[in-house]
Design a protein that fits this description.
Helix content: 25-40%
Oligomer: single chain
Shape: globular
Low-confidence stretches: none
Number of helices: 3
Number of strands: 4
Radius of gyration: 14 Å
Structural class: alpha+beta
Strand content: 25-35%
Order of helices and strands: EHEEHHE
Strand order of the largest sheet: 2-3-1-4
Length: 103
């Protein structure tokens, strides 16, 4: 049985692009859900302006890799504008997948 993963995606948005970025997030959320993400949550840092985090679950590492690739792809129509919004471009879209541990 494959263990589900918790995924975190973190990036900072240029101040001048906050409004179009936030308007575009509904499409991003829908797309990653189509690719297997569930329990999608979206946050803005309380102590770091324009720093955003997305958190969601995926069923396996392959789903994580596909979503990560999409989110860092500057040529894909959905994420091309997104890459321009991110301070430093797509290379500054940080993605991590975690396996849950029990204590």
């Amino acid at each position: 049985m494959t263990q589900a993963l918790d995924v975190f995606i973190e990036y900072k948005i240029h101040e001048k692009y906050v409004k179009p970025y936030e308007e575009n997030m509904k499409k991003i959320k829908e797309r990653v859900q189509e690719m297997g993400a569930s329990n999608f949550e979206w946050y803005e840092a309380a102590d770091q302006p324009n720093l955003y985090v997305e958190m969601f679950k995926v069923k396996d590492y392959d789903a994580y890799e596909k979503i990560k690739s999409l989110r860092q792809d500057e040529s894909e129509s959905l994420t091309k504008d997104f890459s321009a919004y991110v301070a430093g471009g797509s290379s500054k879209v940080h993605c991590w997948a975690f396996k849950r541990k029990m204590i």
